[in-house]
Amino acid sequence: MKLAREIFLILSFLLIIWLFIPPFSPLIIIFSNLLIALIFYFIFKNKLPKKICFSLLFFIFTLLCFWVFKILTIFNFVSLFAFVLSLIFLL
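Given the sequence above, the corresponding C-alpha cells read:
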C-alpha cells in the first residue's frame, strides 16, 4: 500500500507535466524520465541493496533519456555520453 501511494504521487506529476507543458522541451523530457525512473526505484528499494538501487535508477534514467533524445537527434551526443556514464557506474 505504501508503494502504491509513492507511485501515485509520481504518476500524478507525470500526468500534470504531459498535460500542460509542450512535449518536446528537453527539460521536461529529462524530468519526466527521472520520475519514471523513480517509480522503478520505489519498486526495488526494499528488494535490493541501496547502492544497486541507485545504480539501477541512474541506468534506467539515462537509458530513457538516450532513447528519447535519440528520436529527437538534437541531443544525441549528450544522451549517448550519459548512457555510457551510467554503464560505467552500473559496473
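Helices lie at 2-20, 26-44, 50-72, 76-90. Try to locate this feature in the C-alpha cell string yourself.
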